[in-house]
Amino acid sequence: MTSKKDAAVPNYPPQSLFVPPPVTKDVRFRAARKLVQRGRVQDGAVEIFRVLVHRAEEEFESKSRSCSYSWLNVAAAYYEYGHSLYLNICRENDGRESESVAKTSSGYADAIEEALEYMAKSLKILFTHYADCKGATNLDTSATNVKITASTSFKRIAYWDWVRNQISRVLIGIGNVMSFTGDHSQAVESYLNAIPYREETLEYIMHPEAPRMGTVTNQLELLRCHRLVVEVHVLIAEELLLCPKGQDVKSQFHLGVNGSMHDGLHETVAKIIIVKSAERLILAKNYYEQAKDQLQDLVFMMAKIEQEENSISDSEKKSICHLATMLMEVGIALSTSEDAYQK
Fold it and tell me: Whole-prediction pTM value?
């Protein structure tokens, strides 16, 4: 199948709507991101992000004691470092996604564990900030005991849209690593957790009072967010088909609202059934059908935008084509699985 590592390297959303933390404007950060996006992670991206992690921790740790949003710089660096580690492992294994990679090589196992550690640390910061923002806007505050003042709430909320988008990105990144190591149940859970955040972003952009509603910029943002929702549905369908036959799909780690991640390697946790064995193919087919319908809407949206002589970036077109290829391969795999099940 088409490698999921390609789908995991999206461009950041337009800064006018999704304001990113300052570290993302660092020349080194942007250079390393370019290397990752061009498939050249081996040309120093990992080393650059490692340096940025240390710098972000040193420069923003003191500030974070009085204004926790400064930790978003650290969160961004944490994820990019962990993600680049994962992509480098994929490259060294020619993109082969196999359980044996992690279990037969201690070097790869250590790198994968480090990648997951930094992604989880990033997620913990993002979850905390997200909960703080909800408290600042008088929404649900039951998830956090952190209190914020009027002087800090504006800056926190300014980054909220970026945080919401980044949470889904990190969850999908974690899911991709889990899939790579053969832990497909954990991958399914991580992808499922990403859905509400991507749908929430889409709903926000579609709101009548959204910034630049009805403009070309809004249409392009809407196209991108629709694609990201389709993507996570495709990933869930694909991963469900990769889960062991005849076994329930169980949660082997738990992501709390504070981003804590527990797995069987570090402590014993109860395994919760996500999908029963008898329902696995049915659910996979449901997500596949949803994605297929959504992709048709996406193509129609593209045609409408171009009909109005508005330009869609080459990278966005490439991402949609890549998504269509993934969907086609999932459809073939689903058909094969259904035939085998009937026999």
Answer: 0.81
